[in-house]
Specification:
There is one protein chain. This protein has a single domain, classed as Aldehyde Dehydrogenase, Chain A, domain 2 (3-Layer(aba) Sandwich). It is about 20% helix and about 10% strand. It has two helices and three strands. It has a three-stranded parallel beta sheet, with helices on one face. Strand 1, helix 2 and strand 2 form a beta-alpha-beta unit. It is globular. The N and C termini lie far apart (about 30 Å).
């Protein structure tokens, strides 16, 4: 859980919400994250608290499209990719995607 990997990997551990947010943010990396839950309020609270460039709710980060930002925080990348976001590389934009079905 402490290394940035470029593969579909899931860490499965028991957790409390605040504890898991702290563990996830205690990293020098912050590319993408996923939150799987039926509680949209919990999902949004976690997504807003994660220090990552993108958060998918009930989905993984395998989907990408140029009109939304793709890139990370911290040591994960040097800005955002995507047509509009390439010129905004000095900001910290966060995307939160939700799969509703």
């Amino acid at each position: 859980m402490c290394e940035e990997t470029f593969a579909p990997i899931v860490s499965v551990i028991p957790f409390e919400i605040e504890e898991v947010i702290e563990m996830a943010n205690d990293s020098v990396f912050g590319l993408q994250a996923g939150v799987f839950t039926n509680d949209i309020n919990r999902a949004m609270r976690v997504a807003e608290s994660l220090e990552t460039g993108g958060v998918w709710i009930n989905e993984t980060s395998i989907y990408r499209q140029d009109n939304y930002p793709y890139g990370g925080f911290k040591l994960s990348g040097v800005g955002k990719e995507g047509v509009k976001y390439a010129i905004e590389d000095m900001t910290e934009i966060k995307f939160i995607g939700i799969k509703l079905s």
